[in-house]
Amino acid sequence: MKTNRSKLSGKTIKPAIIAVACIARQGETSQAKIAKDLHINKGLVNREVQNLLKAGNIEQHVSQTNRSHSVITLTSSGKKLIKQVQQIRNQWWQENSHGIEQEELQKLLEKLIQR
Description:
By secondary structure, the chain is of the alpha+beta class. Helices cover 59% and strands 14% of the residues. The strands form two sheets. The chain has a two-stranded antiparallel sheet with strand order 1-2. A two-stranded antiparallel sheet has the order 3-4. A hairpin with a 7-residue loop joins strand 3 and strand 4. Helix 1 crosses helix 3, helix 1 crosses helix 4 and helix 2 crosses helix 3.
């Protein structure tokens, strides 16, 4: 069975890591919002959220503004994970961005993050 994973600098990036990055960008979010933002099905998001909860990288609690919804936030462990992912991403950019101006790279990265 083929897994839904990406390769970055020789390391496998699981969908859970991508979900963590999505949570970090939004601060507080829901499983439905992650699925919508990443264009993946809710079942996959639910499985990855359960894995992240077990690993202690996220917390899930009832929304303060809408008691019928739950929201997801990063734990300190999840924030450390984001820093590791950023280091891997930065290393990959350095290895693969020869001949491109730093300012151009920053603009491109900002555009990619916004999507």
